[in-house]
């Protein structure tokens, strides 16, 4: 059986990880959530009182970190040096600081290297911002997932509600827009669609419809 690399990029909360997990499970591939790696470093930096602007200290901290994943039903657990941080890396303080951490070239260099090692043997679905452009430029299938900011904020709002967390839709919208702006305007590997990526607007599509479209693209490879 041929195993390929599937790269899924796009702005915040476009549904990348949801569809990536479903596809990886179906194909028996590895799922790699690269955003979780940037979040893990951000979490550790906050915990150690390291400024998000201090590239040197961030890289030093990162080199001491083993970031690992463990499958957990449809989801994935995340660990830093054996300590579980699955939920902690999704908290607002981490979310709002992660774009500053991920803007540093040396931070990206180290994490991209780790991501390329994970994907080296194929059979991987990887999601992030620069997978098709920088991490896996020769990936057989590249997807650029987008949705309107309103739709993305609403999805996140409902997801939070289902976890019993009440958030303001307006605040969510602003946070998503801010993060997209920072991720698209940084100097090193900004969020941008790879030339050979297939653009999918998921605004009026269900998860299953998005998965089916990507499945078709994988099948013809
Ligand atoms: O995918 P997620 O929203 O969890 O990513 C969190 C943040 O990590 C992004 O907003 C971005 O700043 C950074 N990131 C990145 N490159 C990737 C994946 C994530 O810069 N490949």
UniProtKB/TrEMBL annotation:
Name the UniProt record assigns to this protein: Cytidylate kinase
Residue ranges occupied by any Cytidylate kinase domain in the UniProt entry: 6-219
Keywords, ordered alphabetically: ATP-binding, Cytoplasm, Kinase, Nucleotide-binding, Transferase
Catalytic activity from the UniProt record: dCMP + ATP = dCDP + ADP; CMP + ATP = CDP + ADP
Family (UniProt): Belongs to the cytidylate kinase family. Type 1 subfamily.
SUPFAM superfamilies: P-loop containing nucleoside triphosphate hydrolases
GO MF term (any one): ATP binding
List of residues binding ATP: 10-18
Annotated organism of origin: Carnobacterium viridans
Enzyme class: transferase
Main location: cytoplasm
GO term, biological process aspect, one: pyrimidine nucleotide metabolic process
GO cellular component terms attached to this protein's record: cytosol
Localization annotation: Cytoplasm
EC number(s) reported in the record: 2.7.4.25
Higher taxonomy: Bacteria, Bacillati, Bacillota, Bacilli, Lactobacillales
Highest taxon of the lineage: Bacteria
A Pfam family of this chain: Cytidylate_kin
């Amino acid at each position: 059986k041929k195993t390929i690399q599937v790269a899924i990029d796009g702005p915040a909360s476009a549904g990348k990880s949801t569809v990536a997990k479903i596809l990886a499970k179906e194909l028996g591939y590895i799922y790699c959530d690269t955003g979780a790696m940037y979040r893990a470093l951000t979490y550790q930096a906050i915990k150690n009182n390291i400024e998000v602007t201090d590239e040197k200290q961030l890289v030093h901290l990162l080199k001491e970190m083993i970031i690992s994943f463990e499958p957990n039903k449809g989801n994935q657990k995340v660990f830093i040096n054996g300590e579980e941080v699955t939920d902690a890396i999704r908290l607002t303080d981490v979310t709002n600081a992660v774009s500053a951490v991920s803007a540093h070239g040396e931070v990206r260099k180290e994490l991209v290297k780790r991501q390329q090692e994970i994907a080296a043997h194929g059979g991987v679905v990887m999601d992030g911002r620069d997978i098709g452009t920088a991490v896996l430029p020769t990936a057989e299938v590249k997807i650029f997932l987008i949705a309107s900011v309103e739709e993305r904020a609403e999805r996140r709002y409902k997801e939070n509600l289902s976890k019993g967390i009440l958030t303001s839709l307006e605040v969510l919208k602003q946070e998503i827009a801010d993060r997209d702006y920072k991720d698209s305007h940084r100097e090193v590997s900004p969020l941008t669609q790879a030339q050979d990526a297939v653009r999918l607007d998921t605004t009026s599509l269900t998860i299953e419809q998005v998965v089916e479209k990507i499945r078709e693209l994988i099948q013809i490879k």
